Amino acid sequence: MSELNELYQQLILEHNKSPRNFKKLDDATHHAEGFNPLCGDHYDVWVKVEGDKIVDIGFQGSGCAISKSSASMMTTSVKGTTIEQAKQLFEKFHQVVTGKLSVDENIEELGCLGALTGVSEFPARIKCATLAWHAMHSALTDAEETVSTEETKN
Amino acid sequence: MHTHSFWNHPKDISMMETDIKNETSFDVETIRKDFPILHSLMHGKPLVYLDNAATTQKPLAVLNSINTYYREQNANIHRGVHHLSELATFEYEKARGKIKNFLNAAESKEIIFTRGTTDGINLVAHSYGRKNLRAGDEVIISAMEHHSNIVPWQMVCEETGAKLRVIPMTDDGELIIEEFEKMLSPKTKFVSVVYVSNSLGTVNPVKRIIELAHHHGASVLIDGAQAVAHTKVNVRELDCDFFVFSGHKLFGPTGVGALYGKKISLESMHPYQGGGDMIRSVTFEKTTFNDLPYKFEAGTPHISGGIGLGAAIDYLQKIGMDSIGDYEQELLEYGTAVLQSVSGLKLIGTAKDKASVLSFVLENIHPHDIGTILDREGIAIRTGHHCTQPVMQRFGIPATARASLAFYNTKEEIDLLVKGIEKVKGIFG
Fold it and tell me: Given this structure, which CATH class describes domain A2-151?
């Protein structure tokens, strides 16, 4: 059960139950959808950018506890950062959950996202943890595009 | 030409069935010994394999037949004068004969080897559909089709201008036959429906559907992918024009399956693919096609797969499809009762006539999370939309968790599933 406890930490279950920023932004400057055609998980991510700063972010959609809590924690982690910082955080998060970077060395930098690093032990669930992130990345890069987990490398 | 089959040896069968009936009940423990993989550990726990609608496990008889083929019989078929090639051809064609008997087709030439159900449907949609469908014609499928019985018809309809119509279903997951009757008209040219739903378990009244369609002059394909492992199929009694299934859902290898077609239908159709084996003569000016079934079997086929599928059919017939069906119904009834007693659990698919598929959702817990936690308990189920997204849309859910049972499963395994579900609920509080 230890790996399971590692995966379904209290913080994850709590974000799953009460996701933060679970809202549509009517004044968003960027938007994208994230979709996993293999399981049907689906999220919309809206971002409001002023200058190079993310001043607000929201998401809606449905999926498992991992994808929803990751989306929720993503919004709290990148709100107030610059676009560049958000992209860098995604890169780091992605590398840690896919096992390319060590969890221990990066856990502090990841903040609350550290709760999601248990996913690295569950290869089938990495796409869940990164789905909303891909959508945010797509929103900030090529606005108004649907990203599919099957076109990306996790 | 196809010399051996069980039905040619009725004595063998009656002996086997008597043996089994003499047991106090279905001897599942003995049967489990035939499946090596069922004795493996997953995450340190005994494997509880409940994903049989996705693919079934293979008995030793199938594994041994494939091994024997490659060790002792391997050669290309239908072309060599040497002995090995004759031997391989004999074994492959013997397997075709076993499929013919298994489905109770009239002739072996009505059995076309395919890569599986999807391949069989595509063959019919493209070969029969393209030739016979015109703008304004209608093709009818049902609300519970697998994507493989939706997309090929959409493609052909788009190309020909025919219209795709869908038989609706009730909240229990039963097709509304009165609505189907209303849809039928002289415009209806083809009806393609699933025998047993992979995501709901519903057994559809295909005989009635075939009768109604024929009454209006339409041809019918039955997707038997989920049916063949659970029930005896008799294509002549059903009177379907086409019937398709996959080997790997019938305890045989992946990558092989069969299409049954009435001779008159198959003969009227153009080949689906061109190549070796499907021709009689080729010049650069003109090619004449081979006879049935070879006309539809271009290229070197999955020879070991066909032979393995034949071995799977032998194995099943030794146990007896009726015994298998009875035992699975017992499991289904037990599973339905114990799952319904779990608070917060809702079964999706509650038709009166069902095969051993238990699709469910848990309140506030996504099927993926259920699947991951059960996996750590050694329990393999499928979670997701099961390649039936329209079914999920019909029930307003993104996905289900699905336990699908085979005759090697036990009530104890269903108890472990329930225990696992309670653990899931515990974690999610």
Answer: alpha beta
